[in-house]
């Protein structure tokens, strides 16, 4: 933990100020120590360089199961890919890299930290990535050399943060929460009045094949499996996706063939076609590992923004299977 992070932290129980005690420092990172609340005496350890505001042994069982799957995923699939920047910009449309310059940014559910890294590189004043799972270990390793990047282990519903953020974003996280709307509103509560928020979620529309046929398998079988077994098993559907995208979707779309538009799920599969085997395997594994996944309609998503009282809301349809939202917080 970099000492600068302290200026954004508050006690998640009572919003009190936190006192920092340092036990071991390594190259400007506080590796071991503690944060203690001045008001309610709650105490949170800093270990392995990460402030720990959530204890996985104590969170609700559904959240713990989600964190177990994703924690394993992001500590296994630690690869980087040059295409992440373009993909990220697609998810947070209409935001562009210049938007990050000088802003204090919060990421809800940072996973392995790939977007924390990008936001920091695009000139954010500071970017704070929070995640409930063991993915924070990978995110910390990926961002520790960046002076403006910070990683926290915390539950999105109990953020240990002051309302000091110019911009918050969350990519692929809210639909995995037990109450997606509640997670969205919790994240938004940390954005300063007049600041902005982006969220990308799975859509209900055009995903009936997933909700009817894939969800029962995911809920009853794959999300309950040992992740090492799922890693091997998921190579079968991943190989089908890989062959289809490399041999059919990629070439037909590149050649501008009119056939492409008639292919099943073309907008999404052509978007992931340029990725290599490991990234496509990650995507397939990601879809099978989560015990909780909601597919959310445009109408429901629009209600979240209304409830927030956000202005200038832009909701866009992404790859014909998901929703991107961007708006200004009151
Ligand atoms: C599909 S991953 C997306 C990660 C990252 N946003 C990305 O796109 O690479 C979902 C992430 O949400 C995190 N997550 C799930 N429930 C959470 C919660 N209650 N609080 C914070 N993070 C949570 C998971 O641990 C996981 O890293
Ligand atoms: Zn407190």
Question: Short summary of the structure?
Answer:
The strands form two sheets. Strands 7-6-5-8-9-11-10 form a seven-stranded mixed β-sheet, sandwiched between helices. The longest helix has 20 residues, at 235-254. It has helices spanning 61-76, 84-91, 114-121, 135-143, 180-188, 208-220, 227-233, 235-254, 266-272, 277-289, 298-308, and strands at 18-26, 29-37, 43-47, 50-51, 104-108, 126-131, 149-153, 165-171, 191-202, 311-318, 322-328.
Outline the structure in words.
The protein is of the alpha/beta class and 330 residues long. It has helices at residues 61-76, 84-91, 114-121, 135-143, 180-188, 208-220, 227-233, 235-254, 266-272, 277-289, 298-308, and strands at 18-26, 29-37, 43-47, 50-51, 104-108, 126-131, 149-153, 165-171, 191-202, 311-318, 322-328. It has a seven-stranded mixed sheet with strand order 7-6-5-8-9-11-10, sandwiched between helices. Strands 1-2-3-4 form a four-stranded antiparallel sheet. The chain is globular and about 65 Å long. The two termini are 31 Å apart. S-adenosylmethionine (SAM) is lined by residues 63, 66-67, 70, 74, 109-111, 114-115, 131-133, 135, 155-156, 171-173, 176-177, 286.
